[in-house]
């Protein structure tokens, strides 16, 4: 009678059984049992070794170990005498059993201290009558409690096998699973003793057949067509359909994208680009990026993405390793392009110069096996790996696919950078299926409110997000995804709580977990996530024309439910790493099962669930995902070791919170006093942002375990370098204490001081978004993450918070009360001002908002008219009449109003022909007309400003599209009359008490006279006639501007406002100047998306010290802009009455010049498959002497300067432009230059000053 226990362990070498749970040492002896009976095999000399050998092999497959320690246990014994079973997969099964039988001598001694005992032991018993009784007896003697027991007993001509598990320590199914696998091995030993251990499968025939069905994914798709060939099909099918919509609203239809890419492809060919070539592409998310990508493919080459923010070393490596002979960039002067070491072409000038050279823009014959792109991933040796992806790989992803709904109605919002392989799905999933690719900027993607507006306004159907970014957006607003049809999330394990919140908030949304390495072209497996959720969200099944296999330590198919490495294959698989055959040999294998398919070893640990879906468990190695990028910490460690003074380095990934952002921490040793901040800055100059450790911890020595390896569990948690807990300034009041908690939570730190710099603590833009939303929730105030750029410490943010919470009413979001039912309602100041201005000239259209929408073929006029009527019924502001009752103007909501959509048989009239004055007493103050326009149609719209501002227009258009398409909309929570009634009842006094003192302080002293030099004298009454001058800062200035504001931590608008004030100083000769700024006026949370007129005008008064360096003046302006917008609700008309003195009707009160910045993508939005944008009217009206309007795009900042033609000639406006640009250039070239130096080198415009002289005749 003998018993074997396996394996003996130390705490450093735990045994992880599938389904095992932690169990206390005093656990009950309740057991689950599984029983099998086998025919008694022929007697042999090694029979006693059959069961331990079989169980050892099973445990090898479960755990991946090369040896198992076994102990002999006798009845009544208090412990086990261990010996070792080594498992050589190259032995035959017969040889392995004989080797096990020879291992009778005790192996290494195994001693256990009391504090090392872990209750997870496997017991093997042979020929024992009541194994369970023996196990209970063993436990009673004080031996380690077992988790699993397997016993064998001869019963006549059979062998009875029992498997038992502790009910408190393991899944009851574990007993059945282990016994099934032990039986499979025993059968193999008896039937096929000459079979190799490595070739012995644990699977039954039924299990193998089930696995085969999981990988039966072949479906027809155009596998032999190239990307350009498939794109050409879409051009031919619908040339006028929108293909790309930029962040700034730029629209390229399929025909225009075809023309531009053909021109650029022709230019590339003349530069020697052709089949087999590689072209580096330095690009942000712009329409030009899409043109360039397609042009490279049409030239027969492959594109190699290079992020504009890559350090020079990384750029040089990628360009050289990929053998790229040319780089395309939006701006050849960018730092990334400058470091390329190869000729650089600007794609704008390349496409333009090729405009007349389309004769050689002939499609290269499509080769589905040719490279489409090369993408670089992290490498363990410190050298990134180039992954070439073919046209067929890409086409398999987006054509014939079963994981997403692709079609002509698909509108995908691209969130990934071109160097991130999710962009493959986003770009080609749109363009190869006739859909529309929408682009936006990082600021919008990181801000839930802005992203939600973009998704709704553009009617986005499909979006991809990395898991950490998704989690953060959900924390801000889970409802933002409601307008979507599909949301794909991945790049890391999904957070069950966050996914659950979105599924509950957006019941019509299809959420997909997308998994896949770059080597298998973006997605390998996907899973449609539905409620209820388990503890883990599966990564699903292989997508069409792909395979996914779980393998054991010997490379064979792993049994169901048992963890193993995931191998993927199919038509998405790369041909291998670029020029790295030694890596290919390790990463790509021929399957030992099935048809010997070529597979990629992902290094991910998974298990297959009973329904065949795959569940992600972790990494086989220490590879992690940082911001969606796959990162080998070993690569980063190699880079750290290159820095002078570093002796040893290990890099570890940490997570800020459950479901939060992962970040890297480097632990280093040095023989000198190493400055960790300088070390991090040095790494940032060489590595992409996601590879730069957020923290660097300097240690005297790296902690080692008993095996001499770095003991990662003993590494300290990262803290901010250069500060001990005692040296930090702690919170000094409740506000700072709350902020400290938010800082620690966002950054995952135990200690933060009020003077610590947020970004020096390792924060990223995503962390800033997390903190921004946390501040909003904690204090109930509006707080933009952009404020952290200029206010990066707790002390500074606390100052902002106190200002925002200067009254009890501001400490929590104020609920807008419902207005009572009454015949009419008051008119707020914004509407009253417009009513008065309209009364001055009832025929004027100066205060209209004309819009034009360019729509594709097939828009149903009747359906559109019904949508308009539903919109009017939905929002009272569209049914409101404005009337003067003899005392004051009031607004009255009508129960219903007539509306008809104008319909034209011929081409649309001009906008000026369409505009007609509104009678403000006759709603709706909205009209629309639909006209045929080429292959599509044109919709003209006109609204009066008294019922809508810019935000309202975006909301109304998004809802109009939803109503047309039949998408459900939530009931409006508030009506405009609620705001009007609140303002009259309490709002006016609330705002006055909080904000009026600020403005009275700003204008405590009247501004010094600062007259603009004019070409003519002012008329007695200011007119509105005007013209405009359009110009552009250019890509070079814009890039330099953005670099400056990022380094100085101010906003783009702060820079533009600062140089605009210097312009006014230059042309007026005064250092005390005032400019007007438009403000949204929607500080109340309930007003964020309420249709109506809320816009206000605020004043930016600049008192310029000529001795200040520009960068000091810039920071001061940034702080002033923040304060101005914090006090934006005080009515401009009320301020005029209080501080402007006697009214001068020849000019605008308080200021003569206005400045505004239009964020990217807010002037144009998607609408019914087309786009809608402000109409370009033939006549320009201007309410101010000068109105400078900047428009931000991805690569440049454009400007339109509207000027009064009563005062200025066009030549003068051009002089003004030149003066402004000289100031911009001077500030960008030398930010430390004193302001006087910038103005001193700016020549005064030679404009005659005119003086009005009154003659008494």
Automatic annotation (TrEMBL):
<dbReference type="GO" id="GO:0008610">
    <property type="term" value="P:lipid biosynthetic process"/>
</dbReference>
<dbReference type="Pfam" id="PF00501">
    <property type="entry name" value="AMP-binding"/>
</dbReference>
<dbReference type="GO" id="GO:0017000">
    <property type="term" value="P:antibiotic biosynthetic process"/>
</dbReference>
<dbReference type="InterPro" id="IPR000873">
    <property type="entry name" value="AMP-dep_synth/lig_dom"/>
</dbReference>
<keyword id="KW-0597">Phosphoprotein</keyword>
<dbReference type="InterPro" id="IPR020845">
    <property type="entry name" value="AMP-binding_CS"/>
</dbReference>
<dbReference type="InterPro" id="IPR020806">
    <property type="entry name" value="PKS_PP-bd"/>
</dbReference>
<keyword id="KW-0596">Phosphopantetheine</keyword>
<dbReference type="InterPro" id="IPR001242">
    <property type="entry name" value="Condensation_dom"/>
</dbReference>
<dbReference type="InterPro" id="IPR036736">
    <property type="entry name" value="ACP-like_sf"/>
</dbReference>
<dbReference type="InterPro" id="IPR009081">
    <property type="entry name" value="PP-bd_ACP"/>
</dbReference>
<dbReference type="GO" id="GO:0043041">
    <property type="term" value="P:amino acid activation for nonribosomal peptide biosynthetic process"/>
</dbReference>
<dbReference type="GO" id="GO:0003824">
    <property type="term" value="F:catalytic activity"/>
</dbReference>
<feature type="region of interest" description="Disordered">
    <location>
        <begin position="1"/>
        <end position="20"/>
    </location>
</feature>
<feature type="domain" description="Carrier">
    <location>
        <begin position="730"/>
        <end position="805"/>
    </location>
</feature>
<dbReference type="InterPro" id="IPR025110">
    <property type="entry name" value="AMP-bd_C"/>
</dbReference>
<protein>
    <submittedName>
        <fullName>Amino acid adenylation domain-containing protein</fullName>
    </submittedName>
</protein>
<dbReference type="InterPro" id="IPR029058">
    <property type="entry name" value="AB_hydrolase_fold"/>
</dbReference>
<dbReference type="InterPro" id="IPR023213">
    <property type="entry name" value="CAT-like_dom_sf"/>
</dbReference>
<dbReference type="GO" id="GO:0044550">
    <property type="term" value="P:secondary metabolite biosynthetic process"/>
</dbReference>
<dbReference type="Pfam" id="PF13193">
    <property type="entry name" value="AMP-binding_C"/>
</dbReference>
<dbReference type="GO" id="GO:0005737">
    <property type="term" value="C:cytoplasm"/>
</dbReference>
<feature type="region of interest" description="Disordered">
    <location>
        <begin position="709"/>
        <end position="732"/>
    </location>
</feature>
<dbReference type="InterPro" id="IPR010071">
    <property type="entry name" value="AA_adenyl_dom"/>
</dbReference>
<dbReference type="Pfam" id="PF00550">
    <property type="entry name" value="PP-binding"/>
</dbReference>
<dbReference type="Pfam" id="PF00668">
    <property type="entry name" value="Condensation"/>
</dbReference>
<dbReference type="InterPro" id="IPR045851">
    <property type="entry name" value="AMP-bd_C_sf"/>
</dbReference>
<dbReference type="GO" id="GO:0031177">
    <property type="term" value="F:phosphopantetheine binding"/>
</dbReference>
């Amino acid at each position: 009678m003998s018993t074997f226990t396996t394996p003996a362990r130390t705490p450093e070498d735990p045994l992880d059984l599938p389904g095992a749970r932690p169990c206390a040492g005093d656990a009950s002896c309740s057991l689950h049992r599984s029983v099998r009976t086998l025919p008694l095999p022929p007697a042999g000399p090694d029979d006693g070794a059959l069961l331990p050998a079989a169980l050892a092999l099973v445990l090898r497959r479960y755990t991946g170990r090369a040896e198992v320690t076994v102990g002999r246990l006798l009845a009544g014994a208090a412990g086990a005498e261990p010996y070792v079973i080594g498992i050589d997969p190259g032995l035959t099964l017969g040889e392995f059993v004989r080797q096990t039988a020879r291992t009778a001598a005790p192996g290494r001694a195994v001693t256990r201290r009391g504090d090392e005992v872990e209750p997870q032991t496997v017991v093997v018993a042979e020929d024992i009558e009541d194994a369970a009784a023996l196990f209970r007896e063993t436990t009673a003697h004080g031996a380690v409690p077992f988790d699993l027991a397997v016993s064998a007993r001869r019963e006549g001509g059979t062998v009875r096998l029992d498997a038992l598990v502790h009910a408190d320590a393991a899944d009851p199914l574990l007993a059945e699973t282990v016994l099934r696998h032990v039986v499979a091995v025993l059968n193999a030993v008896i039937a096929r003793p000459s079979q190799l251990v490595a070739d012995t499968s644990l699977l039954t025939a039924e299990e193998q057949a089930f696995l085969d069905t999981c990988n039966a994914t072949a479906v027809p798709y155009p596998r032999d067509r190239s990307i350009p060939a498939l794109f050409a099909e879409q051009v031919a099918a619908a040339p006028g359909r929108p293909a790309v919509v930029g962040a700034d609203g730029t629209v390229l239809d399929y025909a225009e994208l075809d023309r531009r890419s053909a021109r650029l492809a022709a230019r590339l060919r003349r530069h020697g680009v052709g089949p087999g070539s590689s072209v580096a592409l330095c690009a942000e998310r712009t329409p030009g990026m899409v043109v360039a990508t397609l042009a490279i493919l049409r030239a027969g080459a492959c594109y190699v993405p290079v992020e504009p923010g890559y350090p020079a070393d990384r750029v040089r490596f990628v360009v050289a390793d990929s053998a790229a002979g040319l780089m395309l960039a939006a701006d050849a002067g960018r730092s990334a392009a400058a470091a390329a070491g190869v000729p650089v072409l600007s794609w704008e000038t390349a496409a333009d110069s090729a405009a007349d050279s389309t004769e050689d823009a002939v499609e290269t014959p499509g080769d589905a096996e040719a490279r489409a792109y090369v993408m670089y991933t992290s490498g363990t040796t410190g050298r990134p790996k180039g992954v070439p992806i073919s046209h067929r790989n890409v086409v398999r992803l987006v054509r014939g696919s079963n994981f997403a709904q692709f079609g002509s109605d698909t509108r995908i919002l691209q969130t990934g950078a071109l160097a991130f392989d999710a962009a493959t799905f986003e770009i080609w999933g749109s363009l190869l299926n006739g859909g529309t690719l929408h682009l936006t900027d990082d600021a919008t993607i990181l801000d839930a409110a802005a992203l939600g507006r973009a998704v709704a306004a553009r009617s986005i159907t499909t979006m991809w997000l990395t898991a950490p970014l998704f989690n953060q957006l959900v924390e801000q607003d889970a409802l933002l995804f409601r307008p979507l049809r599909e949301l794909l999330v991945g790049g890391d394990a999904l957070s069950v709580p966050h996914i659950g919140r979105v599924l509950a908030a957006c019941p019509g949304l299809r959420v997909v977990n997308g998994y896949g390495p770059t080597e298998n072209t973006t997605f390998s497996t996907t899973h449609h996530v539905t409620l209820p959720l388990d503890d883990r969200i599966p990564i699903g099944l292989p997508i069409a024309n792909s395979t996914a296999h779980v393998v054991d330590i010997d490379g064979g198919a792993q049994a169901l439910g048992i963890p193993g490495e995931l191998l993927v294959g199919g038509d998405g698989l790369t041909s291998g790493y670029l020029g790295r055959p030694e890596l290919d040999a390790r990463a790509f294998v021929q399957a030992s099962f099935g048809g010997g398919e070529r597979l990629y070893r992902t290094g991910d640990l998974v298990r297959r669930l009973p329904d065949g879906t795959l569940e992600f468990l972790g990494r086989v190695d220490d590879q992690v995902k940082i911001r969606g990028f796959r990162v080998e910490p070993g690569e980063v460690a190699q880079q750290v070791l290159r820095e002078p003074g570093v002796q040893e380095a290990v890099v570890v990934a940490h997570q800020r919170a459950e479901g939060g952002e992962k970040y890297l921490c480097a632990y280093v040793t040095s023989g000198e006093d190493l400055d960790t901040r300088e070390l991090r800055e040095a790494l940032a100059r060489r590595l992409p942002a996601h590879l730069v450790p957020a923290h660097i911890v300097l240690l005297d020595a790296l902690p080692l375990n008993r095996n001499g390896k770095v003991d990662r569990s003993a590494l300290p948690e990262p803290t901010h370098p250069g500060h001990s807990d005692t040296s930090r300034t702690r919170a000094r009041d409740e506000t700072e204490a709350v902020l400290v908690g938010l800082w620690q939570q966002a950054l995952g730190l135990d200690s933060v001081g009020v003077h610590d710099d947020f970004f020096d603590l390792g924060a990223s833009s995503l962390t800033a978004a997390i903190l921004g939303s946390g501040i909003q929730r904690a204090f109930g105030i509006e707080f933009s993450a952009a404020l952290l750029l200029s206010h990066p410490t707790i002390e500074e943010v606390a100052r902002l918070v106190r200002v925002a919470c200067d009254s009890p009413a501001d400490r929590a979001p104020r609920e807008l009360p419902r207005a009572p039912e009454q015949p009419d309602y008051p008119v707020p100041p914004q509407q009253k001002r417009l009513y008065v201005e309209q009364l001055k000239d009832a025929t004027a259209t100066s205060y209209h908002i004309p819009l034009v929408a360019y729509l594709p073929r097939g828009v149903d006029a009747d359906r559109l008219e019904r949508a308009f009527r539903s919109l009017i019924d939905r929002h009272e502001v569209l049914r409101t009449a404005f009337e003067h009752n003899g005392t004051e103007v009031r607004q009255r909501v009508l129960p219903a109003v007539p509306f008809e959509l104008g319909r034209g048989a011929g081409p649309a009239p001009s906008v000026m022909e369409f505009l007609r004055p509104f009678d403000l007493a006759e709603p709706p103050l909205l009209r629309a007309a639909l006209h045929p326009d080429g292959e599509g149609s044109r919709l003209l719209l006109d609204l009066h400003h008294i019922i809508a501002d810019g935000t309202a227009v975006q909301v109304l258009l998004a809802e109009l599209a939803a109503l047309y398409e039949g998408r459900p909309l939530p009931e409006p929570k508030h009506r405009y009359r609620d705001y009007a009634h609140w303002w009259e009842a309490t709002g006016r006094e609330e705002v006055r008490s909080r904000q009026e003192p600020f403005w009275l302080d700003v204008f405590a002293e009247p501004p010094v006279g600062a007259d603009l030099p004019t070409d003519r004298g002012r008329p007695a009454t200011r007119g509105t006639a005007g013209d405009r001058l359009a110009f552009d800062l250019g890509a070079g200035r814009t890039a330099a501007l953005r670099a400056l504001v990022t380094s100085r931590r101010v906003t783009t608008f702060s820079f533009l406002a600062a140089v605009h004030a210097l312009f006014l100083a230059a042309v007026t000769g005064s250092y005390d100047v005032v400019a007007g700024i438009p403000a949204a006026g929607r500080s109340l949370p309930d007003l964020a998306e309420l249709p109506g007129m809320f816009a206000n005008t605020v004043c930016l008064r600049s008192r310029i010290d000529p001795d200040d360096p520009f960068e000091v003046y810039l920071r001061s302006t940034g702080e002033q802009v923040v304060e101005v917008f914090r006090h934006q609700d005080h009515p401009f008309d009320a301020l005029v009455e209080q501080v402007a003195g006697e009214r001068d009707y020849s000019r605008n009160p308080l200021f003569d010049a206005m400045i505004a910045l239009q964020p990217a993508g807010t002037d144009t939005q998607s609408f019914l498959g087309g786009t809608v944008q402000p109409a370009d009217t033939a006549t320009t009206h201007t309410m101010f002497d000068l109105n400078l309007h900047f428009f931000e795009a991805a690569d440049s900042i454009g400007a339109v300067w509207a000027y009064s033609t009563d005062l200025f000639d066009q030549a003068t406006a051009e002089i003004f432009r030149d003066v402004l640009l000289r100031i911009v250039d001077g500030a960008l070239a030398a930010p430390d230059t004193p302001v006087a130096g910038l103005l001193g080198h700016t020549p005064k415009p030679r404009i005659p000053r005119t003086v009005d002289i009154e003659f008494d005749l």
